[in-house]
Amino acid sequence: MTTPPLSPDELLTTTRTVRKRLDLDRPVPLGLVRECLEIALQAPSGSNRQGWQWIVVTDAGQRAAIGEYYRRSFAAYAASKESAGSLYKDDPDRAEVQRRVGDSAAYLAERMGDVPVLVIPCLRVEGGKLPGGNQAGLWGSLLPAAWNYALAARARGLGTAWTSLHLVYEREVAELLGLPEDVRQGALLPTAFYTGDTFRPAARVPLDEVLHIDRW
């Protein structure tokens, strides 16, 4: 597929979480998803192990089942103090943004099972048990590849939304998809064509508020 002329900086600063603008009615060719995954596989991994596995779910029944698990998990999340819409209520500069994020997240939660393609990046983990200590090295061998996928999708007219709320029901989803015991899921990336290409850089806290040089 011919990709639009996006500079590296534009691609990196306009790859946004897409929820309300996912086109739920337009099929996504599997070949296009494969193109994005080929880009994903160019990401680094610890010791060049390349232990990632990718589950691409297109079957309507399986998508609906995953969507129901996601809806249940989101309901509990939305009722918690950690939900996007509950954060920064005392900060007028951020409260409205958080409300919009919460609304769009709720919108997607009700429609997750209708998204044409659900991509689940996974890792093989010895014995299927996650290490008890620092897991940065483990997930650092998967998450950059998942972000590569999201960038490649954006460049091809596809929108994605990075989420992991379905992992509350990781075992149930694993059974649904027939995953081996040593395969652990790292994220859920709903994928569809987006409607309206008006993505732009998001407001962020100033760099100097989070930058530390040499010492905290």
From TrEMBL:
Residues covered by the Nitroreductase domain? 14-183
Q: Does the keyword Oxidoreductase apply?
A: yes
GO MF entry, a single one: oxidoreductase activity
Q: Where is the signal peptide?
A: none
Xref: InterPro entries? Nitroreductase (IPR029479), Nitroreductase-like (IPR000415)
**Which species is listed as the source?**
Actinomadura geliboluensis
Give the UniProt keywords, A-Z.
Oxidoreductase
Pfam families, alphabetized: Nitroreductase (PF00881)
Q: Known CDD domains for this protein?
A: Nitro_FMN_reductase
What is this protein identified as? Nitroreductase family protein
Family indicated by similarity: Belongs to the nitroreductase family.
